[in-house]
Amino acid sequence: MIGFSKSIGFTGFTSFPEFWSRAWLFEFSLLCLTIPVGLIALPQLQTRFMLAKDSDSFKKITPYGIIIPFVVLCSFFTAGVTANAYYYLTEGVTAVEKAGGIDKIIPTWINEGYPQVIGIILFITILAAAFTTLNSLMHLLSTTVSNDIVTEENKTYGILSMVAVIVFAIIMCLAFEKQPAIIARSTAIYFSVLGGSLLPSLIAMVRGSLNTRASIWSFSTGVAASLFWILFVHFKESKLFTGVTIDIGRYNFVETIVPALIVSTLFYLVFNWNAKD
């Protein structure tokens, strides 16, 4: 793992990778684009936005919205570097080797590096966050199915859509079975597809100039670009899903959100421009 990291341009835990190297493109497109842009486009957050009582509600939460991301990122980086240093000094192995996988580093470090009461508090906190997210998602899904998919005019289409979603979820679970960092990788894909497909329409909606036809084309082409990149271009997912990777050099390490966002934005602008004409 360490040898591979060095070979693609990583320079250490406390420094950014070599500029425009494979590692730089991977880290920049993931941390600086996929996560923040995808976060803006999350359906459950849009649901919460629509359920806000008034504009004063946003003013109350703004300070926390500014502080919390820094606290979260600093906590992750501190935990990662500290765990790695601790296990290397005490057992002569890296945190990855000790935990047995990237996705097991934080749980292992919480269990072995902190008092048990800290682990209990963290578990309760994570459980509370999971419940609030699930609550928003279930509200969104039930509303979408009952009002948008299943109607008197298109019951057949609605049933097929629900079956397709279930089948897709099962395929994802089977594909990611026994894969390292399943939660992180599936979350990155989810954020990439949503951010790359929905952001142009969301920006237009906020600006008060939403064009339905342009939004449909923007979202559809964004999803198509995302799926193509995931299945045939990205260095991780293409090997996992199809086994076919179109070699474009270092740009195989660019996250899905970049091509999807370019395509969806162009299509929105083109169709919106034609509508004005």
Account of the 3D structure:
This protein is an all-alpha fold. It has 2 domains: 1-51 and 180-277, no CATH class; 115-179, no CATH class. It has helices spanning 2-7, 22-40, 43-51, 55-91, 95-99, 105-113, 116-149, 155-176, 182-207, 212-232, 237-241, 257-276. The longest helix has 37 residues, at 55-91. It is globular and about 65 Å long. The mean pLDDT is 83.
Briefly characterize the structure.
This protein is an all-alpha fold and 277 residues long. The chain has 12 helices and no strands.
Ordered list of secondary-structure elements with their pairings:
Layout: H1 2-7, H2 22-40, H3 43-51, H4 55-91, H5 95-99, H6 105-113, H7 116-149, H8 155-176, H9 182-207, H10 212-232, H11 237-241, H12 257-276
Helix pairs in contact: 2-9, 3-7, 9-10, 9-12, 10-12
Average pLDDT figure = 83
Compute the number of strand runs: 0
Structural class: mainly alpha
What string, H for helix and E for strand, traces the elements in order? HHHHHHHHHHHH
Main sheet overview: none
Jot down its keywords:
single chain, 277 residues, mainly alpha, 12 helices, 77% helix
